[in-house]
Amino acid sequence: MLVRDRMSSPPITTDVRASLAEVLALMRQHDIRRLPVLERHRLVGIVTWTDLMRAQPSPASTLVSWEIPALLRSVAVREIMTPDPITIGPDAPIEAAAVIMRREKIGGLPVTDGPVLRGVITESDIFEAFIDLTGLRQGGTRLVVEVAERPDAVTGLARIVESLGVRVTSLATYQQAHRRLAVLRVDAPHPLHVVQALDEGGYPVMHLAAAPEADDAARGTRYAAYTRAWPSREREGNPAP
């Protein structure tokens, strides 16, 4: 999944000469929290809702109420914007955007293709992509499985599940402490036979949960009976993922 697949395009922008009042109105109109700032169609900055709130007089200000709108109309956005903002290209992986936002502690990135502004990608877009990548909206059941540090670990895991006629809708691996874990979602409402087959194949299931949208009143009883066997693992210093 690339940035171009999740960015908002064409982006809503403002001119560097626009007043704070105009920018505030534009954000409210489109229900957004950041705006790329252009000068002669070239990206020169970015302004956020937080920037606008900080620029407004505090309650302790001596300004009277009718002076505040006049002040917002008299100050140009160039005075409070962040110049030369960090950008990302449309063909970058979406996880690269997530890493940059996390590292820089920012909520969005202008997407540029050379000198041309193509769009904006925000933390909300990243959250939506994460939900889609994990297959949450597809329902089914989520399993966390411990996998061995071997080249064919993921292939072997998928082979066992699919040999049972169960479809894998999403699969990802990650490292937790000294264990490599796989998170997979399977298209099966009662996958205890999958759990058994994985355990027998050397892939112990560490956690099992039904999709939150599903009506799991009956299946919850079955899962609870299985999960009660896990506290011994937690006492050994391996908390459930």
What does this structure look like?
Strand 8 and strand 9 (179-186) form a beta hairpin. This protein folds into 2 domains: 3-130, Roll (CBS-domain); 134-235, 2-Layer Sandwich (Alpha-Beta Plaits). The protein contains 9 helices and 10 strands. It has helices spanning 20-30, 49-55, 67-74, 94-104, 123-133, 153-163, 192-200, 217-227, 231-235, and strands spanning 14-15, 34-39, 42-48, 82-83, 108-113, 116-122, 141-147, 168-176, 179-186, 205-210. It has a 4-stranded mixed sheet. It is an alpha+beta fold and 241 residues long.
Compose a concise summary of this entry.
With 241 residues, the protein is of the alpha+beta class. The chain has nine helices and ten strands.
The chain-level structural class is: alpha+beta
CATH class identity of the largest domain: Alpha Beta
What assembly state would you assign to the polypeptide chains in this entry? single chain
**Euclidean distance between termini CA atoms:** 25 Å
Supply Rg: 25 Å
The ordered H/E elements are EHEEHHEHEEHEHEEHEHH
Strand sequence of the main sheet, in spatial order? Answer: 1-2-3-4
Shape: elongated
CATH fold call of the largest domain? CBS-domain
Count of DSSP strands: 10
| Average residue-wise pLDDT | 82
As a percent range, the share of strand residues is 15-25%
List the helices and strands and how they pair.
Blueprint (H helix, E strand, L loop, with lengths): L13 E2 L4 H11 L3 E6 L2 E7 H7 L11 H8 L7 E2 L10 H11 L3 E6 L2 E7 H11 L7 E7 L5 H11 L4 E9 L2 E8 L5 H9 L4 E6 L6 H11 L3 H5 L6
Parallel strand pairs: 1-2
Antiparallel strand pairs: 2-3, 3-4, 5-6, 7-9, 7-10, 8-9
